[in-house]
Design a protein that fits this description.
The protein is α+β, with helices and mostly antiparallel strands. It has 13 helices and 15 strands. The strands form four sheets. It has a five-stranded antiparallel sheet with strand order 7-6-5-8-9. Strands 1, 2, 3 and 4 form a four-stranded mixed sheet that branches. Strand 1 and strand 2 form a beta hairpin.
Length: 412
C-alpha cells in the first residue's frame, strides 16, 4: 500500500484506478494458474494490502446435467453458503498460496501496461485542461529537417513541458527568433489530441492568443470581463494590434491595458522580446474604428464602404509613412483588425482628385475591370432568365407572325 501511495504521487494516477489495475492483474494471474477462464473476484484490503481471490459461481438445480465452468449445483453451494438459492450466485474463497513464476510475470506485464495507459490518460486530461492557456516551456533542441519536395529545410523546435515533450513547427515559431537549448519561452497550447502513444500537444509561440493570455495576467479587468478584446491580429516578432472595449462607462479600456507609465503593456512586450503592441479602442462606427486602428498615424477622414469591405483613410502628407508603417505592416494589420481593405491617401492626393473632378466616393467603389466570380446560384438564375426570355420572345414572334400586316424575318 505504501508503494501504491508512492506511485499515485509520482505518476499522478488516481489511487482507485491503480487498485483496479492490480485487481485485474491478479484475476489474469489466477486464470493463468488454473488454466481456465473462470469468473473470479478480487478483494483488496486498502489498509493492509491483503488480498483474497473469490470464485463466483452460478447456483443451478441439482438435476442439471451439463455444468458450465462457473456453475455449481444447489446441494454443493449450501456447503459454502447456507443462504444460497437456485438462480443466484455465491463466492468461494480460492486464494492460492502462490501464483507461480509465469503467472506473476504475466501479472507484472498487465500492471505495467495498465500503468502506462493510466499515465497517458492522466497526462491527456492534465493538458486538455490547459488548452487555450500559456505554459512556460524549456527548449530541448532544435532540428533542421529536409523538405521532401526539395525546398528549404524545415526547422522544428522541441519544447519540454515538465512532464512531456512536444514539437513546435515553423508556423508556430516567431520568424527570425533564435531558439537555444534550455531557453525558457511562454507557449500557447492551442490543441491537445489523444493518441495511443500518449497526448499530442500543439503549442505556439506566434499565436495571437499568446498575447491575449499574457495581457490577461497583467490586466485583471480583462480577466474579470470588465474589458473585452474585440479583435486582435499579430505578425509575431514584429507587431500586434489589439482592439479593446470597456463594458463600464468609467473605465478607460486603452489606458487600463497600457497601465501607469506603460507598465502593464511593457511587461507583456518584455515577454515577447520587445515586440510592439498597439492597444486601440474598438468602436461600432467603422470609420472611427479604422481611424483608431491606423494609430499612431493621425487620420483626418475615412471613407468606407462597409458592404464592399473597402475603405480609404485620408492622412496629412507627413503622416503617410507612419500610416503605412515599415514594409506596410501598420496598414496591413489595421486591415486585418477591422476586416476592411484599407487604402491610404494624403491630403495632396485628395486635392489633385478635386482638380481632376474625380469624386471621392469613387475610391471605395470597385472599378468596371474588377469582376466578381458569381456563385452557382447566380449562374443558374442567369440561365433561367435567359431561357425565359427566349421562350417569351419565341411566343411573341409566333403571335406576330400569325397577325396580318406584321413584317416577319424568317432568318431572325
Amino acid at each position: 500500500m505504501n508503494l501504491i501511495d508512492i506511485l499515485t504521487a509520482e505518476k499522478g494516477i488516481n489511487k482507485d484506478v491503480l487498485l483496479e489495475t492490480i485487481k485485474h492483474a491478479l484475476q489474469t494471474a489466477y486464470r493463468k494458474k488454473v488454466g481456465k477462464d473462470v469468473d473470479v473476484d478480487i478483494v483488496v484490503d486498502e489498509k493492509t494490502g491483503a488480498y483474497r481471490v473469490f470464485a463466483v459461481k452460478n447456483v443451478v438445480d441439482d438435476g442439471c446435467e451439463e455444468l458450465g465452468e462457473n456453475d455449481i449445483v444447489y446441494r454443493d453451494a449450501l456447503k459454502y453458503d447456507s443462504k444460497a438459492e437456485v438462480g443466484g450466485t455465491i463466492s468461494i474463497d480460492v486464494t492460492p498460496k502462490d501464483f507461480g513464476r509465469m503467472a506473476v510475470l504475466n501479472a507484472k506485464q498487465v500492471i505495467e501496461q495498465k500503468l502506462k495507459e493510466a499515465e497517458r490518460d492522466s497526462l491527456y486530461e492534465e493538458f486538455a485542461a490547459k488548452q487555450d492557456e500559456i505554459i512556460i516551456g524549456t527548449v530541448q533542441r532544435v532540428e533542421m529537417k529536409p523538405d521532401p519536395l526539395g525546398g528549404k529545410p524545415k526547422k522544428t523546435v522541441y519544447v519540454n513541458l515538465d512532464k512531456t515533450d512536444c514539437a513546435m513547427y515553423e508556423k508556430d515559431q516567431v520568424a527570425g527568433e533564435v531558439y537555444k537549448s534550455n531557453m525558457k519561452i511562454p507557449v500557447y497550447v492551442y490543441k491537445v489530441e489523444k493518441t495511443t502513444k500518449g497526448p499530442r500537444i500543439f503549442v505556439s509561440h506566434s499565436h495571437p492568443n499568446l498575447v491575449v493570455r499574457l495581457l490577461e495576467r497583467e490586466v485583471p479587468e480583462l480577466a474579470d470581463g470588465s474589458i473585452v478584446i474585440k479583435s486582435i491580429t499579430r505578425e509575431a516578432g514584429a507587431r500586434t494590434k489589439i482592439a479593446v472595449f470597456s463594458r463600464l462607462e468609467n473605465v478607460d479600456a486603452v489606458g487600463t491595458c497600457i497601465g501607469t507609465k506603460g507598465m502593464r503593456i511593457s511587461a507583456v512586450m518584455k515577454e515577447l522580446k520587445n515586440e510592439k503592441i498597439d492597444v486601440i479602442e474598438w468602436n461600432k462606427d467603422m470609420k472611427q474604428f479604422i481611424a483608431n486602428a491606423l494609430m499612431p498615424a493621425k487620420v483626418k477622414n475615412v471613407i468606407a464602404d462597409e458592404e464592399g469591405k473597402r475603405a480609404v483613410a485620408i492622412v496629412p502628407d507627413n503622416e503617410l509613412s507612419v500610416a503605412i508603417g515599415k514594409e506596410g505592416i501598420n496598414v496591413r494589420l489595421a486591415s486585418k483588425l477591422t476586416g476592411m481593405k484599407i487604402d491610404i491617401k494624403t491630403v495632396s492626393d485628395l486635392k489633385k482628385m478635386e482638380q481632376d473632378h474625380i469624386g471621392i466616393d469613387s475610391l471605395v467603389k470597385p472599378s468596371k475591370k474588377e469582376t466578381v466570380e458569381p456563385d452557382e446560384t447566380d449562374v443558374l438564375d442567369d440561365i433561367m432568365r435567359e431561357f425565359e426570355a427566349v421562350i417569351t420572345d419565341s411566343s411573341d414572334n409566333a403571335d406576330r407572325k400569325s397577325k396580318p400586316g406584321v413584317d416577319w424575318d424568317e432568318d431572325a
